[in-house]
Design a protein that fits this description.
- 34% of the residues lie in helices and 20% in strands.
- The protein has 118 residues and is an alpha+beta fold.
- It has 2 domains: 55 residues; 59 residues, no CATH class.
- Strand 2 and strand 3 form a beta hairpin.
- Helix 1 packs parallel to helix 3.
- This is Copia-type polyprotein.
Length: 118
């Protein structure tokens, strides 16, 4: 049941960037989920139910309106208390609408904040 629930939440992440970090964090426990992970997944589902009208909106532009693409990136340094690895993320926005995003744990432990950002 847990894997099915996480699969459904990951599918929702295609149009709901607001849940991606939480779903990614819960997904790390797919092989050996505990009751606390199931509770967290249910909490995300309740959040989705309460914010059912949230999503991505691509407004139409008439005439020669200029398109603006903006990107943001950030990372934490040794944010995971267990293995001290950092998490990096980015988001790209086209006219104030999110078009791509990612958040993932870095494969190695960064030795400085500069290294975590790179």
């Amino acid at each position: 049941m847990f894997k099915l629930m996480i699969g459904s939440l990951r599918y929702l992440c295609n149009s709901r960037p607001d849940i991606c970090y939480a779903v990614g964090a819960i997904s790390r426990f797919m092989n050996s989920p505990k009751k606390s992970h199931l509770i967290a997944a249910k909490r995300v589902l309740r959040y989705v139910k309460g914010t059912i009208k949230y999503g991505l909106l691509f407004p139409t532009h008439s005439g020669e309106a200029q398109m603006e693409l903006i990107g943001y990136t950030d990372s934490d340094w040794c944010g995971d208390k267990v293995d001290r690895r950092s998490t990096s993320g980015y988001v790209c926005m086209l006219n104030d609408t999110t078009v791509c995003w990612s958040s993932k744990k870095q494969p190695v432990t960064a030795l400085s904040s500069c290294e975590a950002e790179y």
